Amino acid sequence: MTRCFQFCISVFLMYSLVVADLSAAEAKTDLSGFVPIFDGKSLSGWHKLTEGGAWRVIDGVIVGDQYPEGHGGLLVTDKHYSDYELYAEVMTTYPLDTGLFLRIPSVREHFQVTIDYRPTGEIGAIYGPFPTGGGFFQHCYEGITWWDPNEYNPVRVRIEGAIPRIQVWIRDNKVMDYQDTPVDGRPRFPRAGPVGIQVHPGKSWGKGSKVSFRNLMIKELNR
């Protein structure tokens, strides 16, 4: 009886591991249909939207840092995009504040997915400019629990609609589902704009901190 019980337990455990492996495989991001927006060699197809910040390509990775000290900036694609899924692998030192910018024709018109890796920061929140200043459209307190400071973190963002719905996954875990609202009966921001990445100015960026982006890809959606 004991041997039979042990055998049954062993079979159950083996089955559980197989199911777990299959579930993990099914949950992995499907990148079919995505195309690179970074060639892995240069910043061709990108330009600075603001003057500050230093952007270099090192070993197939876009590395961002403050330059001059305390000054940040935005690097954006030359091409404008409307409805799409964006995929990026991001590594952050600590502390720093960066993000993925969506539909950003100007610094006053965009949605930002925050990657704010510091004590008071949020990863995966939706942030943007208001008529004056800036603020959160929707907080995300869960995202930082999935963030690994020692590895590249897969981040996938889906934005669609004139008044957009924005969804965010970190390491294949859905952490954000935000539906924007109209302002005076119209979309808050333009429907199309470049994709951007950020080096934040000021003290939210620790001395010597750097952010690294690789495998930046996009899949445009049918309207």
Compose a concise summary of this entry.
12% of the residues lie in helices and 43% in strands. The model is unreliable at 1-26 (pLDDT under 50).
Keywords summarizing the entry:
223 residues, Jelly Rolls, mainly beta, 12% helix, 7-stranded antiparallel beta sheet, 2 domains, 8-stranded antiparallel beta sheet, 1 helix, single chain
Structure write-up:
The protein has 223 residues and is mostly beta strands. It has two domains: 29 residues; 190 residues, Sandwich (Jelly Rolls). 12% of the residues lie in helices and 43% in strands. It has one helix and 15 strands. The strands form two sheets. Strands 1, 3, 4, 6, 11, 12, 13 and 15 form an eight-stranded antiparallel sheet that branches. Strands 2-5-14-7-8-9-10 form a seven-stranded antiparallel sheet, with no helix packed on it. A hairpin with a 4-residue loop joins β9 and β10. The longest helix is centred in the first third of the chain and has 26 residues. It is globular, with a radius of gyration of 20 Å.
Task: Tell me the layout of helices and strands.
Layout: H1 2-27, E1 35-36, E2 46-48, E3 54-58, E4 61-65, E5 73-77, E6 84-92, E7 96-106, E8 109-117, E9 123-129, E10 134-138, E11 153-160, E12 165-170, E13 173-179, E14 196-199, E15 211-220
Antiparallel strand pairs: 1-15, 2-5, 3-4, 4-15, 5-14, 6-11, 6-15, 7-8, 7-14, 8-9, 9-10, 11-12, 12-13
CATH architecture level-2 label of the largest domain:
Sandwich
**What integer is the average pLDDT?**
88
- Whole-angstrom Rg: 20 Å
Strand elements, count = 15
**Straight-line distance between termini:** 63 Å
Reported for the largest beta sheet, the result is: 8 strands, antiparallel
